[in-house]
Amino acid sequence: MSEDRELQQAAIIRFMCILTDPDPPINELVRFGIVYRLVELISRYPDQKHGAIFVLVKMIQSSYYQVLLDCGVVPILVQLLKSDREEDRLLAVWALGNIAEKSPPSYDHVISCGAMLPLLAQFDEPHSTPEMLLCASWTLRVLCSRYPPPPHELISPAILELERLLYSNDSDVLLNASVTLACLSETNDDDIIEILIGLAVIPGMIQLLEHPLSVVQLQGLRTVYAIMMGENDDYTQVVIDHKPLGGLMNFLTKTQRDNAKKAICRIVYKFTFWDESQLQEVIESGIMQHVIPLLENSDEQIKRYAVWAISNITEQRNHDDVNLLVAQGCIEALCDLLTSPKPYLVSAALDALGDILIVGFTGAGQGYLYITRIYDAGGFEPLVALQEHPNEDIRDKASDIIVDYSDYWDD
Question: Which of these, 287, 199, 280, lies nearest to 238 by C-alpha position?
Fold first, then answer.
């Protein structure tokens, strides 16, 4: 290998040109030992550093990236994150993200070489370009989204920076930050959840439920769902205290994703049995007018949590609440479930209809109207048929409704 600096520079430029081809001969460059020589040039000749790094970075995308790791490229890239030139730092940020994404061992290698803290320093640079912020947020996403996540001493400063990025005007940067925080909330790691709560991430993620981009809204939903479905009641209460129902309703009215609808219905259901004040918050939020039509959805799990939420509300037998649900089409939707092949859906629908009729005939003054709506919705015939259902509980519930209001059915 030549020690002539001009020949070295010319060779690097030639390699840069070769690697811009659609199908560059990377295997030949590796076979001739070019990788080792480039690493040596970076160490010995700082003025050749940028071109050599560019060539190595382009090679990272190939199947020969392990050769780069074996040559000690990662520590060089980590050191490059401290360069005075943003152009060099940008190359390093991009390269480290790509290496970490390749495999669990390469990810562990990037973390063990100390990439996290100098990466986070890129966000504090006073003159960081939008390109740097985007690339750094993507690499941070790569480093924090894998399971298990990095050590807690690295996660805390990372979450602090991610929380700031939730307020970025760049939607791509915001998406990277929100995806990362959503992934961290799903780790089921109490220490990480404590950090998320302590650094005020929860209100920022709930705010994303109102974002115009559905993919960003989804990250807010993932976070709310992960924490509320966990086993720690204190964490659930933190989410409830930040009042996510308005944002959830906003997302529910716009999303076509069944998994999102199911998650929202499950959250609403948990609100309805948490305590009486939260049940009332569900009513006052207006979200039930969007949950009730989901009983007609073909997804069984969506129906499951929607009807359970309705049943929890009607079980309280509050006249105003029941009247509101009826006005929102609750009776018609429940009648549709009476012919379901799933006994637990039929049973929940019977519970709710029974409570509605009790309310109607014990003070709401709407009993006969409710009976009429059941008739008009085609619910009477299924009620009669359910008296012969193989499930004893269902037979008894259907029979009680028929017998208790027999005078009105005859009318």
Answer: 199
At a CB cut-off of 8 Å and minimum separation 6, what does 46 contact?
none
- What is the domain partition of the chain in residue ranges? 1-122+129-143, 147-242, 275-411
Q: Which residues of 337-357 are buried (b: 16+ CB within 10 A; e: fewer)?
A: bbebeeeebbbbbbbbbbbbb
Tell me the C-alpha distance between 93 and 139, whole Å. Answer: 7
Among 36, 34, 44, residue whose Cα is nearest residue 3: 44
pTM for the model stands at: 0.88
Q: Tokens 């269902």 sit at which residue?
A: 394
CA distance 260 to 266: 10
SS3 307: helix
Residue type at position 143: L
Domain 147-242 in CATH 3.40.50.10540? The answer is: no
pLDDT digits (tens, 9 = 90+) for 232-278: 999 999 999 999 999 999 999 999 999 999 999 999 999 998 888 99
d(CA 287, CA 268): 8
